[in-house]
Amino acid sequence: MASAAGTPAPPAGRRRCFAWIALAGLLLLAWLAGGGALVAVAQERRYTVAFANLTEEPGATLEGTGFTGREVRESFALAVRRYPIDLVFYDNHRDGQKALANAEDAVRRKVDLYIQYLDDPATNVKIGQSLRAAGIRALAINTPVPDAPLYTMDNRAAGRIAGEALSEYGAKNWRGLTTIGIVVGNLRAQEHRIPERAQGASEGLKRHLPAIKITALDTQGNPAQVGPLLAKLLATNSATKALVAAMDDASALAAKSALDSAGRLADGAIVGQGVDRSVHGGMNDRKEIDPSNRGSIVIGSVAFYLDRYGYEVLPIAMRMLRGETVPPRTVTSHRLISAANVFIEYPPYDMN
Amino acid sequence: MTRKSLFVVIVMLAALIASVPAALAQSDCKTIVPPSPWGPNDQTGATNRVTPAVTKAAAAEIQEGKVVVMSYPLGDGIPLFGTRFTKTILTATTLAPGAALGENQLTYMEDTWLSQSHVGTHLDGMGHIGRKDCYYNQTPMGKFITQNNMTKLGLEHLKSFATRGVLVDMVKVYQAAGKFKGNAACKKPCLEKGTVITKADIEAGLKMYNVTLREGDILIVHTGWGNLFEQYPAQNAVYNSGEPGIGKEAAKWLVTQKIVGVGSDSWGVEVIPGEDPKEAFIVHNILLTDAGIHIMENVRTDLMADEADRTKRATFFFSMTVPKGVGMTGNFVAIEGIR
Predict the structure, then answer these.
(1) Does an H or E element contain A303, and which?
(2) Structure confidence by residue, pLDDT tens digits, A89-100
(3) Can you give the pLDDT at residue B83?
(4) CB 3.0–4.6 Å: which of A314, B163, B236, B325 could bond B79 by disulfide?
(5) Dist. CA B173–CA B198, nearest whole Å
(6) B276 touches chain A (CB under 8 A)
(7) Is residue A255 packed enough to be buried (19+ CB in 10 Å), middle (13-18) or exposed (0-12)?
(8) Cβ of residue A134 closer than 8 Å to a chain B Cβ
(9) What integer pLDDT is reported at residue B213 of this predicted model?
């Protein structure tokens, strides 16, 4: 206080300068307050987005994985909590007519954006036209809608990740031993793009073992066939190691069971596809891919994240709603989930 | 011992010694957890804020002498998270014919209680939640655990919880905002699981009763979800399947408010399923690991919510004694709100 009292008063010019600075500061604050209000108003703008799911039929699995439509829907319901979006849910029932009716309803509701998940390209074309005529932008999942950004899995890449992991495992652990590659699953399921997945797996298996012989075992959609098919093959390859690229998690578990039944667990390594709840779990579950089960011959599974589609797709939707440009194609970041990273990538579902 | 075998022994010992640092290798906790504002030796955390002045000010909340129960009964059959368990066994041998003692025919009974500590209405201590092996105040916990307990951050280091409690009624906030979504299993209104309670929601709850948080307060969040606990064991599965709770933004804001703890009528206080499917109990990290702010779970909040609604006053004297469990990560507690 003493030093302040002893400070001489500033000259009149400086006082005027201070006054102008103070005034400018007040104006700046007022402007910021106004801007803040504008921002607040912008944040309050809510959008209505329709999500037409592929199918929510109980028990029906999607895309050749163990995921259900209900899991896809739930991921949207949870992910939307982050955004000023009101979701309208539709179930396409894997049916073109139903999908068209859903889109018509959304047009009547004047939604701001339509997220279409239907594996019927011809119907998607019609729906795209209908939405465009109504001035509603579309976003497609896994099967294109003309002129709409596409979020999609990459089956070939996923297959390759599995194949490479197996190939690396074989090269590292079974060097010098006779090793065969096996691709097992519903191999002709074009609608689920399993042939692409199988092709990728075969390519990956050759990454570190270029001379490996690969056998394809087609279960024709019946995982119960994995056992007999694999048992027969193992019987004719008694002193052989087997790298098994299973096209889904159910087939991976069936392959392990078959190797176990044949007394050949030590001769096998398996990678699945999907990472659904059949292979990882909650706090109390002890599932196949688990940090406490590192010795399993199911060395991993490639994640497809259908249970996180909402978290992947809604950010794209939000950017579209804000008028931003989005890439025409966004691909799932498939990765190998093993005992070493499963709790990082998929914390026990009852803990997050 | 020959010179050769002596050399072999020395080499083996050297190898063993060299391997020890690797075995004890810890994360660099200074880069993972912030330091305590109360210094590098602090093991107390947010109860440092409960000063005599804070307790004295809180005592002003006792105006009627009315005590409101804020704990649920503790017993077999209550909802338990994960692998937690509790089992009570009564010893009543002297009640058998002829087993009474002495001429005065003394009989007695005792309980054996086998229980995990994070059961029922309970407090999470500083040793409960970490990030990697790093716990509150940059503690590399791997160096401070035995098979029986922790040698650092145990409940014995906590100070008093005699402070002001502030209740925010999220059911009323959501109803007032027209965004209430309930769960059919609740017999009284409850927020649906997965509901993210935001900073704005808490502020609205405070404004509803014209309260401002002050340093040293304990915040109690009423979601209504606890009604499922009250129905035990009928709704245990629903209760444990998720919960409404505070989100990350709200937790970070509460840290800035310098409170002592957050309690709620749910098993985890934070929203489940969480905001990010790749995070596990992240609000616990924000409050406990990073800020030493306690979490109280399965708090009975409905009676205080009713009381606040009736009197239009949401503050009370928060009375909770935490047993000095040496090296324990948490413990069941009894809470009473005194008005």
Answers:
(1) strand A298-303
(2) 999 999 999 999
(3) 82
(4) B236
(5) 11
(6) yes
(7) buried
(8) no
(9) 98
Looking at A38-47, A199-208, B273-282, which range is the least confident one? A38-47
Q: What are phi and psi of A138, to 5 degrees?
A: -120, 155
Residue A3: pLDDT band (50, 70, 90) is: very low
Percent of chain A past pLDDT 70, that is, above it, reads 87
Contact A347 B196 (CB under 8 A): no
Cα→Cα distances A306→A61, A86, A346, B267, Å? 11, 21, 13, 28
pLDDT at B45: 98
Domain limits, chain A: 47-150+308-321, 155-303+338-351
Q: Which of these CATH numbers, 3.50.30.50, 3.40.50.1820, 3.40.190.10, 3.90.550.10, describes B29-79+118-338? A: 3.50.30.50
- Contact in structure between B338 and B65 (CB atoms under 8 Å): yes
What is the arithmetic mean of pLDDT over A319-323? Answer: 96
Separation CA A152–CA A40 (nearest Å)? 34
Kindly list the residues from chain B whose CB atom is less than 8 angstroms away from the CB atom of residue A346. Answer: 277-278
Nearest to A352 among B82, B196, B273 (CB): B273
Q: Which CATH class is domain A47-150+308-321?
A: alpha beta
List the beta bridge partners of residue B124.
B295, B330
Residues 272-291 of A with CB under 8 A from B: 282-284
